[in-house]
Specification:
Elements lengths: L11 E4 L4 H10 L3 E6 L6 H11 L10 H8 L10 E6 L2 H7 L3 H17 L4 E5 L10
Parallel strand pairs: 1-4, 2-3, 3-4
Helix pairs in contact: 3-5
Length: 137
Amino acid sequence: MKRALLTADRSGVYQTPADWSSVREHFTGSGADCFDIDLAGARTKEQLLDAFATSLSFPSTFGRNWDALADALQDLSWKPATAYVLHLQHATPVRRAVGAQWPTLLEVLSASAMYWKRRGTPFIVVIDGAPELPQWT
């Protein structure tokens, strides 16, 4: 039996799969809300956080720091869904630009995935150009 793709136990942070369009199609067909976070123009932490705030329609009170990002990703009450999928597009330039802060972003995303996993809600993040992450299979 083929393992279901969209389950809470698979919540986590992964490399964007080569067959992303078919995986995304499966996610949306399974009822997930998919959010594309375009990082092409981001070169600073602030621009990175702004990309999240814009793509996920964070409340105007969003504090634009790592703790605020974690709080927002672990709330999402303004975006109720049965599953969340975040696709960080064009991440390589900002990854290089923010340097030592990149692992902090990955920690925030991983902690958020675990938060949702404990609540039984799938929360999957896929990141373009992140070879240090496990592959989505």
